[in-house]
């Protein structure tokens, strides 16, 4: 069962008189209670997709459905706040340095609970224990905590109102390897305890392999391939996905430097297997059960 789906989502920005198609017809689905990975290099549109799901960007076209309700409509935006939360990459930037941890968490708690500060104290202390921090952290300021501890605070803040979906936008990228793997373990534990659905955004394919069940690969504002994690890792189909796997330890620089003609496969200028047909829009093809690719090499 899908908890969230997007249909033909389009978000364009104008940058120096150039139109950037940050999302160019994105369809994804998130299976309830599972972790879906979204991978792709810097600038491909991952954060834009997260922000659009959360209603921070208005799509020029397309819809976002939470269960069966279109949450891209203004009248349904309360559903977003109630059900969906986000954890960002940099916890230092996500928390106001002037506020104690208690004030930060109370602000989020107060949105749905009319509790006095004294009553909230014990609830918020318990939430901190869920993220394996001591309740005594409530009286501290962000600068008195480590990066890993601060990310746990951000996770606690996301948990407060018991959302059914949490978007994790590169939640471990600013942390060292050991701290990152502890956070990954914590996220898995919280998912098992509460049945939360995760959309996990990262360009770290090793982390995504560990944590996800379904993977979407994005390139230049489009999904190019998706499927069950095992199939996608065992048998990557799209030339871009293959490159992403090969280059897992290098910085990728394959974002289009030139505008391809509208409708063409955006990866066309870099693709070793490209032919003239790639100047047309690739159709979706199910190459093996539940494993889909948008590539002319497979639809011929
Ligand atoms: N508010 C904005 N105004 C103008 N352009 C934007 C805006 N937000 C994003 N963009 C552009 O949209 C494209 C996608 O950006 P986005 O932040 O979604 O990428 P990303 O995949 O999250 O990258 P990263 O891995 O570096 O976080 C980029 O070209 C970016 O410059
Ligand atoms: Mg991003």
Alpha plus pi helix count: 11
- Unreliably modeled segments: none
| DSSP strand count | 13
CATH fold naming: Rossmann fold
According to CATH, the homologous superfamily is P-loop containing nucleotide triphosphate hydrolases
Structural class designation = alpha/beta
Summary?
This protein is α/β, with parallel strands linked by helices and 300 residues long. Helices cover 33% and strands 25% of the residues. The mean pLDDT is 94.
Helices and strands in order:
Elements: E1 2-15, E2 18-26, E3 29-31, E4 35-39, H1 46-53, E5 61-66, E6 69-70, H2 77-83, E7 84-87, H3 91-94, H4 101-110, H5 117-130, H6 147-159, E8 165-169, H7 177-194, E9 197-201, H8 205-211, E10 214-219, E11 222-228, H9 229-234, H10 239-246, E12 284-288, E13 291-294, H11 296-299
Parallel strand pairs: 4-9, 4-10, 7-8, 8-9
Antiparallel strand pairs: 1-2, 1-3, 1-5, 5-6, 10-11, 11-13, 12-13
Helix pairs in contact: 4-5, 4-6, 6-7
Residues 13, 15, 20, 22, 40, 42-48, 203 line the site of adenosine-5'-triphosphate.
Question: Describe it for me?
Answer:
The protein has 300 residues and is an alpha/beta fold. The chain has a single domain (2-299), classed as Rossmann fold, CATH 3.40.50.300. The protein is built from 11 helices and 13 strands. It has helices spanning 46-53, 77-83, 91-94, 101-110, 117-130, 147-159, 177-194, 205-211, 229-234, 239-246, 296-299; strands at residues 2-15, 18-26, 29-31, 35-39, 61-66, 69-70, 84-87, 165-169, 197-201, 214-219, 222-228, 284-288, 291-294. An 8-stranded mixed sheet has the order 7-8-9-4-10-11-13-12, sandwiched between helices. Strand 5 and strand 6 (69-70) form a beta hairpin. Helix 4 (101-110) crosses helix 5 (117-130). The longest helix has 18 residues, at 177-194. The protein is elongated. The protein starts with a strand and ends with a helix. The relative contact order is 0.14. Magnesium ion binds at residues 46-47, 169.
């Amino acid at each position: 069962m899908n908890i969230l789906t997007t249909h033909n989502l389009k978000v364009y920005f104008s940058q120096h008189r150039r139109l950037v198609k940050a999302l160019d017809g994105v369809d994804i689905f998130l299976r309830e209670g599972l972790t879906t990975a979204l991978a792709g290099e810097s600038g491909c549109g991952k954060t834009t997709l997260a922000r659009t799901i959360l209603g921070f960007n208005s799509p020029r076209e397309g819809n976002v459905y939470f269960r069966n309700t279109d949450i891209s409509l203004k009248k349904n935006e309360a559903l977003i706040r109630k059900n969906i939360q986000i954890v960002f990459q940099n916890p230092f930037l996500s928390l106001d340095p002037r506020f104690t941890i208690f004030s930060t968490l109370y602000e989020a708690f107060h949105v749905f609970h009319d509790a006095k500060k004294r009553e909230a104290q014990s609830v918020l202390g318990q939430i901190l224990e869920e993220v394996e921090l001591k309740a005594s952290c409530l009286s501290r300021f962000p600068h008195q905590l480590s990066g890993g501890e601060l990310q746990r605070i951000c996770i606690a803040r996301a948990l407060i109102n018991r959302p059914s979906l949490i978007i994790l936008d590169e939640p471990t990228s600013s942390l060292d390897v050991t701290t990152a793997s502890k956070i990954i373990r914590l996220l898995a534990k919280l998912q098992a305890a509460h049945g939360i659905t995760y959309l996990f955004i990262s360009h770290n394919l090793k982390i995504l392999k560990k944590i996800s069940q379904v993977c979407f690969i994005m390139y230049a504002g489009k999904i190019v391939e998706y499927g069950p994690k095992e199939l996608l890792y065992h048998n990557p189909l799209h030339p871009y996905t293959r490159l992403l796997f090969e280059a897992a330890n290098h910085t990728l620089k394959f974002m289009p430097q030139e505008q391809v003609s509208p409708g063409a496969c955006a990866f066309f200028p870099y693709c070793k297997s490209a032919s003239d047909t790639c100047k047309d829009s690739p159709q979706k093809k199910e190459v093996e059960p539940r494993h889909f690719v948008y590539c002319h090499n497979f639809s011929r």
